[in-house]
Amino acid sequence: MLTVTSVNVNGLRAAAKKGYLEWLSGCAADVVCLQEVRAEEAQLTEEVRRPAGWHASYAPASAKGRAGVAVLTRRAPEAVRVGFGVPEFESSGRYLEVDLPGTTVASLYLPSGEVGTERQDEKERFMETFLPYLVELRAKAAVDGREALVCGDWNIAHQEADLKNWRANRTKSGFLPEERAWLTRVLGEEGGYVDVVRALHPDQDGPYSWWSYRGRAFDNDTGWRIDYQMATPGLAGRCVKAQVERAASHAERWSDHAPVTVVFD
Amino acid sequence: MLTVTSVNVNGLRAAAKKGYLEWLSGCAADVVCLQEVRAEEAQLTEEVRRPAGWHASYAPASAKGRAGVAVLTRRAPEAVRVGFGVPEFESSGRYLEVDLPGTTVASLYLPSGEVGTERQDEKERFMETFLPYLVELRAKAAVDGREALVCGDWNIAHQEADLKNWRANRTKSGFLPEERAWLTRVLGEEGGYVDVVRALHPDQDGPYSWWSYRGRAFDNDTGWRIDYQMATPGLAGRCVKAQVERAASHAERWSDHAPVTVVFD
DNA sequence: CTTTCTACG
DNA sequence: CGTAGAAAG
Question: CA–C1' distance B60–D8 (Å)?
Fold first, then answer.
């Protein structure tokens, strides 16, 4: 049994003030992948940096207060690797992987963009260089007899069922045809990964994992499913439960994203 | 009878969220001088911009979110003038005067500085050019048979009794010998103004009007008296009450400065 | 709408 | 320590 949770915390320091630690103490996962930590380890309190009972691995961004991913594990990982080998993104705080017995788990924070901006170009460069790495990761895992799981905020909704207003968002970053096509490659023959939440819930809208803080997006469930756990087929086949932990109320929200939790048998 | 209150609000929008309007509604003054408004009129809610029963005159800084002075009057002023005629400071949001029957009341926010920085040079340039204006203001007032009152944050403690730790602050901006000497000129033959709070309370330490937000400065009354009402002698002679409205508790503080209130008979 | 940084105080 | 703007999301 392996339970993995992934959540974009939108600033770990802010999340900690609003209930993240309480959520973590009730969290039964073996591995927690965090995105948008937005802090260096030295800026975190000891309790937040290394919660009791957890090992913590961090990949901060070189730009202060930006991005940053981490992985918490109940047991010390066999290995920790930062980045995926592309110089532009090595210190961008967007990719970290840890080896656990038989499985490599990664925390990914794919850049967000805005059409017509340099940020979107960066997002596209990331996608372009990251897909070959995903392919390589799967190949390496196969050779070693391991499985791989890439969790995180991919900042792309794949299909119309993955966001509330797909029509209005066809020209918006996060649901552009080329971005959706890229995810199709990740999930198709080329990448060979399985979106385990969708695999277990093929016929529903959502479940969304992100709601804008603007307006009443959360109350109206005007969300996007942009946080995924992408597993190699062997691991995906062991998935017995996959869900998004939508907070019951706005009051207990400590991030604009919700945790995505998956149980593998 | 004329009651005038002056207070550095340290951001009028923030102050309004913390109790400024409640304080104002219990304020019996005829004139309220504000410093560090840190907003343009358009950024203020109607209630804050022009509280019921008040006329409001503003002199914002051209730099957004910086400085800014204002004067609230129960009756419409006869005239409103922004600046004191020195180009460098005309749009710096540091000086505004209004004519009321028989009296000109000004709201002043003298620059703060730090020794060895360009900010300190600016403070000194302000002092150098403002003193001649004070002299001119008094002369004009005398010719017109008027009185003048210059209220505000002068960012200088005059004497040892005007701050808690004078020894430790002798080399700090706000208590430098040259700054203290300048205030002595304002209050001496050259300027001819009267510090009305000190005139009525000659033998006490303080009363302080500013306490840093750092540490426990307010609780320990580790403050500075840097907010003054400087009056022409004729007006000062009519002063029957002069006090600093130190908040009873940290909880009811809505600024790091306290209002200075003076009653003229 | 929110977080974080920065400048200023 | 706190305010406000900016950049980012």
Answer: 28
CB B54 within 8 A of CB B47: no
Q: Is A46 exposed, middle or buried (0-12, 13-18, 19+ CB in 10 A)?
A: exposed
- Which two three-digit tokens encode residue B87? 């180009």
Q: Is A14 (CB) below 7 Å from strand C?
A: yes
A146-179: b (≥16 Cβ within 10 Å) or e: bbbbbbbbbbbbbeebbbbebeebeeebbbbeeb
Nearest in space to A205 (alpha carbons), one of A222, A184, A187, A180: A222
The 8-class DSSP code of residue A88 comes to G
For strand D, is any atom closer than 7 Å to the CB of A66? yes
- Domains in chain B, start-ordered, CATH in brackets? 2-264 (3.60.10.10)
pLDDT one-digit tens code per residue, B31-89 = 999 999 999 999 999 999 999 999 999 999 999 999 999 999 999 999 999 999 999 99
Say whether the peptide bond before residue B233 is cis (omega within 30 degrees of 0): no
Write down the residue that tokens 């019921």 correspond to. Answer: B52
Residues 217-256 of B with CB under 7 A from strand D: 256
Exactly one of A20, A30, A153, A208 is catalytic; name it.
A153
User: φ and ψ at B196, to 5 degrees?
Assistant: -70, -30
Among residues A207, B67, A253, B177, the alpha carbon closest in space to that of B169 is found at: B177
State how far Cα A35 lies from the chain centre. 6
CB A44 within 8 A of CB A12: yes
Nearest to A71 by CA among A26, A23, A104: A104
The Cα–Cα gap between B108 and A197 comes to 63
- Protein-covered nucleotides on strand C (Cβ within 7 A): 1-6, 8-9
Q: Residue A61 — very low, low, confident or very high, per pLDDT cuts 50/70/90? A: very high
Residues of chain B with pLDDT under 50: none
